[in-house]
Design goal:
172 residues; alpha+beta; two-stranded antiparallel ribbon; 3 helices; 7 strands; 26% strand
Length: 172
């Protein structure tokens, strides 16, 4: 990705009809050099400040029902169009510099290889959190991004003091 300055986001997607308890979390590396044109002018964000395009890093469960245990599949979607996604609930730009596609991919692979799906303790929300914690341990991002997530409303149900987390993995 050369010298491009990439921006790391955490995204929440609705998973109807399940509601708040099942928001799917994913990581997104925004590439501001990818632009759309409006009135002849380039822009990297839509009118609501949502990034237009980048790489989506997320997890999906390979098989079985939502309550079953199963194998997780880590996926990367380059040139993913975030703006206009009908199920996008919220975005949070993390305050960190220096994250590359390679850094994020390696952390995602390490965490994906270390867990298997469990509706209550090993789900998409927990996966995102563990990937970010891995990046903190690798000294790629500061630990303060974890606090930023909490302040920005990105707390797993487990962190909110619930007995279980009801997040399931979204299928794109």
């Amino acid at each position: 990705m050369g010298g491009k300055k990439l921006h790391l986001y955490v995204l929440k997607f609705d998973q109807t009809p399940f509601g708040d308890a099942t928001t799917h979390w994913a990581l997104f590396l925004h590439d501001p050099t990818f632009v759309n044109y409006r009135d002849g002018m380039p822009y990297a964000f839509d009118q609501d400040g949502i990034p237009i395009c980048g790489t989506l890093f997320h997890l999906r469960k390979s098989s079985g029902g939502i309550t079953s245990f199963g194998e997780l599949q880590y996926r990367q979607y380059p040139k993913f169009q975030v703006s206009g996604q009908p199920l996008l609930r919220s975005t949070l730009k993390l305050k960190c510099d220096g994250v590359t596609n390679e850094h994020l991919d390696q952390a995602c692979q390490r965490i994906s290889n270390a867990i298997s799906y469990n509706l209550f303790t090993e789900n998409c929300q927990e996966w995102v959190k563990k990937v970010l914690e891995d990046l903190v341990c690798q000294k790629i991002i500061p630990w303060t991004v974890l606090k930023q997530m909490e302040r920005g409303g990105f707390k797993t149900l487990k962190e909110q003091g619930k007995e279980s987390s009801s997040s399931i993995c979204f299928n794109f």
